[in-house]
Amino acid sequence: MSLTHHDSNARMSQIAVLNGTVYLAGQVPSDASAGMRGQTEQVLARIDELLARAGTSKEHLIAAQVWVTSMGEFAEMNAAWDAWVVPGRPPVRAAVEARLAKPEWKVEIMVVAALPEA
User: Fold this and answer.
1) Handedness of CA 112, 27, 43, 5 (dihedral sign)
2) 17 within 8 A of 4, measured Cβ to Cβ
3) CA-based nearest residue to 46, from 116, 108, 115
4) Terminal CA-to-CA distance of the chain, rounded, Å?
5) CATH, domain range 3-114
6) For residue 118, what are the contacts with CB-CB under 8 A and spacing of at least 6?
7) The predicted structure's pLDDT at residue 8
8) pLDDT digits (tens, 9 = 90+) for 15-64
């Protein structure tokens, strides 16, 4: 078994890699003053960065979990998501309404991706 953790602190790791699969922690926006679409775009950009650091990309996504604070803004999140996801290669996904750790956050996304075959 090959398990590595990256960007870890006492509570969690941002990236874990196990046997060719990359797991990211839930990602939240850095600028909570943005609206739902802007916050989602920030989160997706951070996911791109972390996947690249782990040696993969959104082209290799397997699964995504999305939490939004209001289904009333679900279409705005989906607009950012649809512009970002690789056409023809969307991951399996679940999306739910939830209260997040900070009230100013509107979205949190967690993904799983495969490492590309060498």
Assistant:
1) negative
2) yes
3) 108
4) 18
5) 3.30.1330.40
6) none
7) 85
8) 999 999 999 999 999 999 999 999 999 999 999 999 999 999 999 999 99
